[in-house]
Amino acid sequence: MRFGVLGPLAVWTPDGTPVAVPEARVRALLASLLVAPGRVVSADRLVDELWGEALPANPSGALQTLVSRLRRAIGAELVVRRPPGYVLTAPSVDSTRFAELTALAQRTSGATGKAEVLAEALGLWRGDAFAGFSDEPFASAAAAALEEQRLAAWEDYAEARLQLGDHTSLAGELHALVEQHPLRERLRAAHLRALHRAGRTAEALEGYDAMRRLLRDELGLDPSADLAALHEELLTAEPVRRRIPSLPVPPTELVGRERAVAGVRALLGAHRLVTLIGPGGVGKTRLAVEVARGADEACLVELAALPRETTVDGLADVAATALGIRDGSRPRSPVDRLAEVLRGRLLVLDNCEHIVEPVAALVHRLLATGAHVLATSREPLGVSGEHLWEVPTLDVPPPGAPPADVLRAGAVQLFAARAAAASPGFAVSADNAEAVATICRRVDGIPLAIELAAARVRVLGTAELSERLNDRFAVLTGGPRDAPPRQRTLGAVLDWSWELLTEAERTVLRRLAAFADGCTLAAAETLCAGDGVQRPQVLDLLTRLVDRSLVVASHTADGPRYSLLESVSAYCERQLGPEERDRLRQAHAAYFTELAEEAATHLCGPEQQKWLGRLDIETGNLRRALGDVRLARALVWYWFLRGRLIEARRATESADPVLAAWHTGFRLLTGEPVDNRAPLRLHAAIADPRERALAGWFLGYAATRFGDLPVAEELTGEALAASEELSDGWGIAAALSVRAVQRHVRGDLTGSAADAERSRALFEEVGDRWGRGQAGTVLGKLAEFAGDYAAATTWHREAAELAEELALWPDVSMSCSELGRIALLQGDHTAADELHDRARALAIEHGDAAGQEFAEVGLALSARRTGRFAEAENLLRPWLAWNQRFEADNGAALILAELGFAAEQRGDAPAAVDLHAQGLAAARRTGDPRAVALALEGLAGARLLAGQPGRARGLLASAALLRESTGAPLPTAERGDVDRIEELLNSALSSGRIRAGSRSGPGRGGRPG
């Protein structure tokens, strides 16, 4: 329990909940015990204090009754009988805490620390000490002593705040205390000094005279020597430090800037000049005002209305007028007069960008006199000792973010607050979250633009507003009438910045709008030079535009990069004339076509990672430049490596023979059915031998995965022969890696291993890490089929690491699934599920349907083997339809086998027989003996379940022959299914239901059944 006597008697639980203490005498008993907390109060004394001369018939019994009631209220363990009376044990009392804090303040050096401790101590007081009991004899002395301690603490507190320069607010706070205690000289002295230093010297002199009259009339005394000396100081001091206008009180709450406020205040605590820079509308002024509100004394001077020709002295005069400063008795320069007034205060100079030179000169002189300055500007002041704080735009949610994440973004919080004010009842919900997020992204998270957009919600709604932002300068208008004209529309905000630029700066800025997502310095120099701007000048002009917060500079591995906010880019596009826009479009396309062609020569060698990264960064520019056959040809391999198959399919839809071939390959890889013979025709139509060899490899790769295997084998063979004729080591390696897969599917494990090993060696030789991973994946599959799971894990891990280094996330997904399969074969279902889950997430994130299928089939394998049959079937059935859509028999055969095993284990014999029969048909079409064997084994289990053990035995025998023909042992995961089937078969044999020789061996004609 906690107890309070510094005000009305109060009791609280440890969590701050008030505790009611009923009856006046019970409360008086508690107050008496709290006069000297922790000390025993005799029973006789308590009786005397509670009843006086009006004693009850049984004083001892009456006291015990009150004690019992007090114990019920606050806890029996707190009120203890201890001869000769009672004691309140271990109480936490606010008067004790007050004494501890005032003692600590006496030991604290430094005005700041002392003021903080005393502020906490005085904050404990809720009114007069022992209010309600202060006239009772038992409490009056204690209450008077506490009041004296309180006044002494106030005097110490006031003197500490005077040292800190907190004059204006202190003068007001001391007024009531001085009125209550007009003859306390130390308190009066503190009040007089606060009034004088706040510029209210006349009031201070009047206060001294009032005290002098009181002393003389009531006590017949004169003021002390200290007060008389203070009076003399007031008479001779120049009244220059007057009260200045307070900071403006913003009409709305600041949203999303908590960290920025704390950061700027911390910076101001260490440095005397801080400049907030950022683009127009980002909220520099609002942030500066909020920061300044935490200072002891701060004043704001708005500079936006001043003409550009303003001088330093003119600027000082304007500031002095805004602060209400009049000339003193001594003639001084405007700057000196301003500096004297600002000593110890924080000066906020708002909107400095158009008169930055005189502002810089004034600030330099003010800093020399000890002033602190917080400036807002669209460019730095460039003064020694300046520390910049770039005010960022508010954070916006990424595309596709769930509603909960959308609501956490600062830009959305501001939009929601302002839209609710303009349209009562508005709230961000699951229905409008994506539209709101889009609006905030489209306006770059700029607070002013967000507020202008929010004001339109009442008329347009969020969906229509989002669509109309394509013409943002027509929509984002109609700001508050009390705002400056430059802040009432988005166009006006940018007009203000544009008008401050030189013609050369305007030329470079508007031409930067030709780029999407920024550009390198080399690209900027290429496109922005001309019409009076020399190429060597571009860097300096870019630097100046960065300083003016119109261009955003970032740093990448390839050097500096320059970009525009979307709103700035849209504004600059409006400044381009038709002829200049056409020239820029052509120059932009030419520049990025050359870049893509150069990159294509490096994407199959040791610099693969570097050039993939360069093209990643330029994705926006490459998409903007598309429209030329040269560029599309240069990008096909990049699109393939990055898994951007849908984008590639759209971009390669062309009559150009090379692009037509790649287009068909991309169609296959995205699951779109293609005429089986089309890849052969398209391949033959390409004239250039190197282009034909590469396209042939790609078509063979795509057909191997999702097309006709004989066609794929023909294409791959031609690509391999052409690459060998061209002495193209990379082309040979690529063709071999695909042929290794084909031979693996056909059951030629020896040939597959030879191709994969040679492919990997050639890829190693040319330095292509992607290719090493491809060949390693085949070697991993071969190790898996050989039962060498340790080697298989090593190969697949290496492939995953190589792909991850290159950020080839679809390949990482496939490698994770391969590792999941190994974990599954080893019986570690937990690890298998974790790996397949990661693979699925990567595939979904990057739109890789094939990777998602491979991962979810792996999850289904685990689910079926652990008895979660419904989960397995739900995962498998959509992918069965997907595989059947483009006749991918390999995938369909495996899925049908798994669905059949699930049906068996559920006891559904007809479904199991049907599914395994379908699976056997698909497996036979693949020509893969292992797939056929698995289907035969599954069908055997289904026949057993259907009561046909004789037919089951024949199927198992045929499967065994096929297994032997592959030269690879049965994987452990499948071994479990076959063991189960064979156990059932042996049980049938032992029961005599079939004879040992019944339907064993090959089927009719000597072929496997």
UniProtKB/TrEMBL annotation:
One GO MF term attached to the UniProt entry: DNA binding
GO BP annotations, alphabetical order: phosphorelay signal transduction system; regulation of DNA-templated transcription
Highest taxon of source: Bacteria
DNA-binding region: 1-90
UniProt cross-references to Pfam families, sorted A to Z: BTAD (PF03704), HTH_77 (PF25872), Trans_reg_C (PF00486)
Keyword DNA-binding: yes
InterPro entries according to UniProt: BTAD, HTH_77, OmpR/PhoB-type_DNA-bd, P-loop_NTPase, Sig_transdc_resp-reg_C-effctor, TPR-like_helical_dom_sf, WH-like_DNA-bd_sf
Residues in OmpR/PhoB-type domain copies: 1-90
The family this protein is said to belong to: Belongs to the AfsR/DnrI/RedD regulatory family.
Name this polypeptide is given: ATPase
Species this chain originates from: Saccharopolyspora antimicrobica
